Amino acid sequence: MKYRKLICLLAYGFISPVLPISKAVAEDTTGSGETEEPAAAAMSEADRETMALDSTATQWSFQFSYNQFKWADDTLDNGSPRPEGNDRNVQLRVVAPLPGSMTGLPFTILPRLTARYAENQNGDWGFTPTEIFALCIAQDWGSGRWGVGPLVNIPGSSDVGTDEWSYGLAGAIVNGSGNWFYGLLLTQSFKDAKPGYPSSSDTNPLGIVPIVSYKLGDGWYVSNGDMVAQYDWDTGGFYLPIALRVGKIFVEEKGSWNIYAEYRTSLIKNNWDGAAHDGSFRLNVTYSMPVN
Fold it and tell me: What predicted TM-score, i.e. pTM, was given to this entire model?
């Protein structure tokens, strides 16, 4: 029951930004200690470009991507072939910010929902676990911020993922300096396995996501892309992919478009027993709108 209440609270974050707010709540921001993003019209184009690269900024975000995967087919140390992941997927990610001026809290909450519809190697389609993450911004120093929040994975189809719940925490820290934007995201979740479910542990691998982007000018940028490193607490195995993302940001009056292509392969996988990228591609379109 407590998990259902948590999910309802997070889901509320996606609809409350469009609900009416009383004038008293909207104006009572004195002493909150919160640093909100300035209005879009008051920001330079360079700042708007940096904001488009920043998943922790106080802005609405709508992301759609197509992913085509190619997996390594080498042999593990135990002699068995390396497992493969899904063949491809489409992903939708929505971020619906809740500034402190809206909630009455002394910090901003960034609820984020990620849903993926995937095809496995046999041609079967289904939804992978849906991720709900609510990042609570603990400190904002202008050029960057850090925060932490709850993470919930709602079961998907067993044909393309897992049909078990998992719960945990995730934290992020980011900063911008000149043309550079960099940061780190950590995620840790725990399975709510069914009785008798064949699993070696209820602890999922630690997710480590380094973030490095460099603006080239005229909206173009390069980035290390979606490099989700993983550490398996049970086996001590470590996996590190490497990626290259090339994109362009189009700044408009009320929002920004971020369009990019990304290539991923594996850098470290020798003691990793799971699937490993061997030439995966992503095409992405994201539209973001600052709250103000």
Answer: 0.82
